[in-house]
Amino acid sequence: MTTGQAPAFAAVMLLTGIGIPVLAALNAGLGTRLGHPMAASVILFALALLIAVAGAVATGSLGQVRLTGTIPFQFYLGGTFVAFYVIAVTIIAPRFGVGNAIFFVLLGQLVSAATIDHFGLFGALRSAVDAKRIAGIALMIAGVYLARKTG
Question: What pLDDT does residue 150 have?
């Protein structure tokens, strides 16, 4: 990454973050209207597959889609986590509230991201968790908690 790319990357990730609660609210609403959250999840993944295939065709990378023993198994498990997230939030958000559901998703993301970065898991860039970073994460957790606290 070059220094000039950082603002663009940050903007795209900010938009991605904005999209997560929107996805949760929309899919939860779809599941409620369809009468079952799993039906909404199937529709979401079907649409996502179509978009991903179109993107692979447009970029000429469809031929790179393959399962191979030369790639460690764990790298194929990302879809499992996406499915778990979508199904869980689609079922839980209408009962628990989108804000509350995302609050706990954010807590999990903060802890998981810091752990992955600290140990350089799955080939991620290594970034040690030090006292400053722990304090920053604690402040983020407190801020998210206060933003969600009602009454």
Answer: 65
